[in-house]
Design goal:
The complex is a heterodimer. In chain A, 44% of the residues lie in helices and 10% in strands. Chain A has helices at 8-32, 37-42, 44-54, 74-83, 89-92, 123-137, 156-167, 188-192, 197-203, 216-228, 263-272, 277-285, and strands at residues 65-68, 144-149, 173-179, 207-212, 234-239. A five-stranded parallel sheet of chain A has the order 1-2-3-5-4, sandwiched between helices. In chain B, the strands form two sheets. Chain B has a seven-stranded mixed sheet, sandwiched between helices. In chain B, strands 7-9-8-11-12 form a five-stranded mixed sheet, with helices on both faces. In chain B, strand 8, helix 9 and strand 9 form a beta-alpha-beta unit. In chain B, helix 4 (64-76) runs parallel beside helix 6 and helix 9 (207-220) crosses helix 13. The longest helix of chain B has 17 residues, at 305-321. The chains are: A alpha/beta, B alpha/beta.
Chain lengths: 288, 322
């Protein structure tokens, strides 16, 4: 494992941001009466680090881009947007409602900052590859980050893309895999095994890092190393826990799917995510 | 020592050649144009572009789904991607065209060679007879099937000047020349290319030349058939169709495609909504293709001039019965 970074102030800030992302995502799914909570919680620490430390701003030629290829992680993406000033919390809580721009899966014509529309697994990764190719042709130094789910890796298109990115030496592309080991119906291992996952990516010609996807210091370190290594595309296989941060959801496949959360479940989850008793009412009413 | 096998040479007068040459000619004026290929550049006509602009030619290997979605990403960063493959493989990647191109509203041009029965001896598996219908059903997708090399060159420029996703058919077979150098093309516009008053034959792609032949056959029987070239299947030229309905009162549609959902479907929808008139449909009758030379198949499967003329006589009896 890599040595953790020592910037404790940054790590503290991102840890708080990740908890905030989880809070907003859970509240949004509650108010939407449907959504995928498990996978939104597993990737919250990755989101906090990517948006809070990795992505560099700039104009259309120079800015870094993030693509959520696992489009069902939309609640976490919107919560991240709210946490980092791309939208309000109130807007993020309009998830899945008629007339809302915050659809069940991200749509770029509603929200330009989501960069591309996703929700059909494998496609966001290919779109990110196209962006990386195009920006390289334009001599831009911008980087593209794409977050993929583990179940998503069962799509053949992902491996078409993996071959393509290595062939074109897209070292401006960073794929981050939210490896929480569970998918819709059961574990990856029971549905369609992915291991040896690191070996697969190495065999495809990628620069591979495997980390604990809930350790902020390790995530930051891996993002730094991905930015530094030249000549190959990068993949960060982030080992995560589905439902992380809400004890009763952790590692329970039932919380992957689109679920309706009860008020009691939601209150329990929000308490686990550091919402004070006095504030619970506001979150439950959506007045935050 | 035996010599290396010769690949079947590209026809010099096919629609794909006209497309590939026009694109290469136009490329200096469109610096953001990039061509995406899945290992069949010689088959789609873009080998001309590759030779002239190797740095703007992107190889994706035999992986059309990744290529199609990556085109959306290239467009997102300001490129004008031209996705090139066979029509049947566009169907393979149609969900990528739907989500990552059309739904995301990307300025991508999908250019498909070997449509319909064009691929001939390769047989039913390779004959895309559903592409016009499938791409037409995607919101925001413009669908074009030019008739001859002159029109193909004009259409190639038109799609580069047009902002938005486009699906355009080319073709590998030697093309029949229909138009002279004075021809013009505008997306969304059809054109009367032969005057007539008894009925209107609406055709696209390879069927336009056959429709003109059919009109000559009908002429010998004293039937005056108008022929409309309808290179844009979507958006269909409703105004022209409405005018033809008023002036001729009966239609035959002709396309190298299933009769369901393509040009015939588009014409029927437009007329039903604006100027109902009897229509006969020439195309594949809800079946797959089979091996044979394209011209043989056109006769065998009822897409030739004779079949169009027979459909015209049939629709005239229906018109008279009204």
């Amino acid at each position: 494992m890599n040595a953790p970074l020592n910037d404790s102030a940054l790590i503290g800030r991102l840890t708080d941001a990740a908890t905030a992302i989880r809070r907003i995502a859970i509240a949004a799914i509650y108010h939407a009466t449907s959504g995928h909570p498990g996978g939104a919680l597993s990737c919250a620490d990755l989101f906090a680090c990517i948006y809070g430390a990795a992505l560099r701003g700039g104009n259309d030629l120079t800015r870094d881009r993030f693509v959520l290829s696992k489009g069902h992680g939309a609640p976490a993406l919107y919560a991240t947007g709210a946490q980092f000033g791309l939208c309000s919390i109130k807007e993020a809580l309009s998830l899945r409602k008629l007339g809302s721009k915050f659809q069940g899966h991200p749509h770029v014509r509603d929200l330009p900052w989501v960069e591309t529309s996703t929700g059909s697994l494998g496609q966001g990764f290919s779109v990110a590859i196209g962006m990386a190719l195009g920006l390289k042709m334009k001599k831009s130094g911008a980087r593209i980050y794409a977050m993929l789910g583990d179940g998503e890796l069962q799509e053949g298109e992902v491996w078409e893309g993996a071959m393509c990115a290595a062939h074109h030496k897209l070292d401006n592309l960073v794929a981050v895999i939210d490896y929480n080991k569970l998918q819709s119906d059961d574990s990856n291992a029971n549905i369609m095994g992915l291991e040896p996952l690191g070996d697969k990516w190495r065999a495809f010609g990628w620069h591979v890092q495997e980390i604990d996807g809930h350790n902020i210091a390790l995530i930051l370190d891996a993002l730094d190393k991905a930015a530094a290594a030249a000549g190959k595309p990068h993949v960060i296989i982030a080992h995560t826990v589905k439902g992380r941060g809400v004890p009763y959801m952790e590692n329970v496949p039932a919380w992957h799917g689109s679920v309706k959360m009860t008020p009691q479940q939601t209150e329990d989850a929000l308490r686990a995510l550091d919402v004070a008793e006095a504030d619970l009412k506001h979150w439950m009413e959506g007045n935050v | 020592m035996s010599s290396a096998p010769q690949l079947i040479a590209s026809g010099t007068d096919s629609l794909r050649e006209a497309f590939g040459k026009a694109l290469t000619r136009l490329a200096p004026d469109y610096p953001d144009v990039v061509v995406l290929d899945a290992d069949i550049a010689g088959g789609t006509g873009v080998h001309h572009f590759r030779k002239a602009f190797p740095e703007r030619f992107l190889q994706f290997g035999i992986a059309e789904q990744n290529m199609m979605a990556a085109a959306g990403g290239l467009a997102a960063v300001g490129m004008i991607p031209i996705v090139t493959t066979f029509a049947v493989f566009c169907l393979r990647a149609i969900e990528q065209a739907r989500l990552s191109i059309a739904y995301s509203n990307r300025n991508v041009k999908i250019v498909a060679s070997h449509p319909g029965l064009d691929v001939g001896p390769d047989g039913g598996s390779a004959q895309a007879l559903e592409d016009l219908a499938a791409f037409r059903a995607i919101p925001g997708m413009t669908v074009i099937a030019p008739a001859d090399p002159v029109e193909m060159a004009l259409a190639t420029k038109a799609i580069l000047d047009f902002e938005g996703p486009v699906y355009m058919r080319t073709g590998r077979s030697a093309a029949v020349s229909v138009f002279d150098a004075g021809h013009s093309f505008e997306i969304g516009k059809g054109k009367v290319i032969r005057r007539g008053g008894d009925l209107t034959i609406v055709a696209c792609g390879v069927e336009v030349a056959r429709a003109l032949d059919a009109a000559k056959l009908l002429d010998q029987k004293g039937i005056s058939a108008r022929v409309v070239n309808m290179p844009t299947i979507k958006p269909i030229d409703v105004a022209l169709l409405t005018q033809c309905a008023r002036e001729t009162g009966a239609f035959v549609t002709a396309e190298d495609h299933n009769i369901h959902g393509g040009l015939g479907g588009a014409v029927a929808e437009a007329l039903a909504g604006h100027a109902p008139a009897p229509i006969e449909f020439v195309g594949l009758r809800d079946r797959f293709g089979e091996s044979g030379e394209p011209e043989e198949l056109a006769q065998h499967l009822g897409l030739d001039a004779k079949s169009i003329a027979a459909a015209a006589e049939k629709v005239l009896t229906r018109k008279k019965a009204i």
